[in-house]
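User:
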Amino acid sequence: MIPGDPLPTAGGEGAKAVELTTDTIDTQIGPIVIVTGARALCALDFGDCEERMKQLLTRRFEDIVLRHAPNPLGVSEKVRAYLAGDLHSLDGIAVDPGGTEFQQTVWSALRNIPVGSTRTYGQLAAGIGRPSASRAVGLANSLNPVAIVIPCHRLIGRNASLTGYAGGLPRKEWLLRHEGALL
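Assistant: Predicted structure:
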């Protein structure tokens, strides 16, 4: 997460639309849509999850203006580097996903799972001091607006099963294999 003021939200008298920059990159696991604000990444998802991304953005911002720009804030380049094997290229990306305090806690904990590692929902819940909140962790995970950068693919079921992923289980499996978490 980034320190300081959150991105402005539109609405109310005299409010301006929030300007967001977008780019779509073609990758070996399908098109990835990147949306940034002025200072941070605020959404990243797969092209076929566009409806989910729209819902997350409209829940957060009442009025937005999207403009295309290649490689906004350098994020497109860093995602390409990650997919090409530089597994730590996403570490320094500033993210501002919005969300509740609990969601932000979960998403921060997800970013702290080391590359090549996985955690169960219960382990993550215990790690944030809420051992009985594994379902709430799962819900926060499903509302993650910055897939891959906030690595929700690193969460697995308690019996090491691959559980749901907004981008689909084949992409989750690919990402885990790419990171060396699955053989």
